Amino acid sequence: MSGVRVLVGTRKGAFVLSSDGKRKTWEVAGPHFPGWEIYHLKGSPADPNRIYASQTSGWFGQVIQRSDDGGKTWDAPGGGVTTGPGGMPAGESNRFVYDDSPETGKPLMTHQFYDGTQKPWVFKRVWHLEPSLDDPDAVYAGVEDAALFRSTDGGKSWRELSGLRGHGTGPKWQPGAGGMCLHTILLDPSRPGRLFTAISAAGAFRSDDGGANWKPITKGLNSPYLPDPTAEVGHCVHRIAMHPSRPNTLYMQKHWDVLRSDDAGDNWKEVSGNLPTDFGFVIDVHASEPETIYVVPIKSDSEHYPLDGKLRVYRSRTGGNEWEALTNGLPQRDCYVDVLRDAMSVDLLDPCGVYFGTTGGQVYASADAGDTWAPIVRDLPAVLSVEVQTLR
Amino acid sequence: MIRVELPPHLRTLAKVSGEVQLDVPGPTTPRAVLDALEARYPVLRGTIRDHVTHERRAFIRFFACSEDLSHDSPDTPLPAPVAQGAEPFIILGAIAGG
Fold this sequence. Notes:
Strand content of chain A: 35-45%
Largest interface: A-B, 21 and 24 residues
Number of helices of chain B: 3
Low-confidence stretches of chain B: none
Strand order of the largest sheet of chain B: 2-1-5-3-4
Distance between the termini of chain A: 6 Å
CATH architecture of chain B: Roll
Structural class of chain B: alpha+beta
Number of strands of chain B: 5
Strand content of chain B: 15-25%
Largest sheet of chain B: 5 strands, mixed
Oligomer: heterodimer
Mean pLDDT of chain B: 94
Number of strands of chain A: 29
């Protein structure tokens, strides 16, 4: 019997929503880590019982949590009783320190700040955790201030892949409204060593050698809020999505504009088409239809809620340009929530399930690829992230 | 024996209830107390002070004997009642935000 597990990160804790393959009735477990901001949780594709969570707080900083039983119990993997000689250094699971050593790292330079001055890199929190496709103990972390870290011991210790921050354009990166965050990490299932990242507000980057070397992949992006709208870096990329069967095709929701690339990010073209607004945060791809994509248009600048108070998911079955509004079961009046960049996901069932969470605390699900929607829960704290595990 | 009072979230994280009691070698200073606390509960590393610089996190305060010791040098000896175990060294989260 198949089932799904929806991992929800919120401003005040984590929740695990479970259902069978019909996706009609749901069990809600949580809050886990009550009172803490849970920016992201994600399960390992290689072991669905292994889930990583980013637990963070303005008071107490960053903690990495791990579950080995599908989200029932949690532990900070490096936080137990001090290990003996040869064991992992205790407490390292919370330690995200930029690698500026001459041997392995890059100099910790400065980056552009809002006021035009240069500011040093300062670690603030983990925005996104991306487990390896085949090793439950390997996981990447995207952090603020923007950098990429990796653990190969189940989250006990972390090391920066400093080639990204140090590849050359770093001093031109600057924070978006939410901070200078690395929020998207995509792993190419067909080409080990190829990974993509996106940073707000720096742009998109690709490595073909496991994260050692990087290059910006922003050709075709046009951002009128930049002095040079087609600059190599500075674009406020909100989210990138990939279908695993076509890893060279990428879809991007940018701070204005929805775009696609069919050559692994080397070139982009706009596919906003008939969207009512091309601003938004989330973008995702149907599990079995690589040309079917979803976005949630949001009114901007600064309002950041649905147009006309109507919460509408837009679906394109043509890989962009032609979009249809999906409204059945979603509020069509007086709705002024936002859907943040990590808050949409799909399951692998047939028909494909689509899920998203709102800053109003609702998590909506569609078990028919977006034709109809219903809330799983309505009154959680503001939702920061939604990830789905399909259980076979 | 030094008594340390943790804020509720850090008690949960360290999986303790009530006060923590620590043997602190040498002079009883905030640095020595935090070193001993983090050695006993490694999960607390980084939650009270920075991993590398050991600077106190901005919204963490240190109180003892009705005094705010947050801005004292971490090497300043703690009040005698704390060193003698009569009063706790209090670590708390500042009142801020929602």
